[in-house]
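help with this.
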Amino acid sequence: MAMGAPLLRVRNLSVTYPSDDGDFRAVRNVSFTVGRERLGIVGESGSGKSTTGRAIMGLARPPARVKADELMLGEVDLRAQSERQLRRLRGKRMAMVLQDPKYSLDPVMQVGEQIAETHRTHLGSSKAEARVAALEMLNAVHIRDPERVYAMYPHQVSGGMGQRIMIAAMLIAGPELLIADEPTSALDVTVQTQVLSIMDELVRERGMGLILISHNLHLVSSFCDRVLVMYAGQVVEICDAGSLADAQHPYTRGLLAALPQLGLKRDELPQLQRDPAWMDDIATPLETHSRKVGA
């Protein structure tokens, strides 16, 4: 997928949390750009990938301290937006699909009404217009019998259907950028493939940018155009998904080596090695590399 002009520009993004032992830097000088493409952010649990997505959305709440030299959504400086302004942007210009829909959907509200509410809020439509748009969106995410599903409550839908409903709710107002944070981790393999296929279809049709956050390196490399690898809050490598096998950083190579391979018999998987020196040697080279591959 061609990138075109960047939809999102991030330069030296940091997220810090106070603790009894001093400040904890969850995200450290992260820099990248996203165009009309699929960018995967991959790393172990605690690497800062989800925190990065929430900081972009303005969802990293106090006591978190978010700083960035640049955080631009198109022509909009996200650093300068009030909470009220960010609420207007969330859904209409950028949206985020979270890991488990049962924690995101209102349990006492029909799922169709939740999708329609987003349409009314951001596009000023009437209740009837929003209902029609919600039914069309349910159909777009390949839900059979949208009328029946519209009237259901979150506890009545499966995990896979719930995630499709969340995707419908996040895309109904036509955002330019979608951040999907582990959207398939709670689903079985077959449903994972279906949800990713639906998301890919909609992103391509609408010419959107997608950031897919995951710990699953194989999934990200097979689905995305580019891959950004995070370790301990920092980006250690950015490369094209097709050339991930040629990755240079030892952490990325370690992640690749730890992946099981069908047909290859090994007594045990290699243990992932970590070097404290990785924390200090990447800030300046990465910023240059990120601008080059994201231009």
About this structure: The first strand starts at residue 8 and ends at 17. Residues 1-93+224-295 form a domain with the Rossmann fold fold (CATH 3.40.50.300).
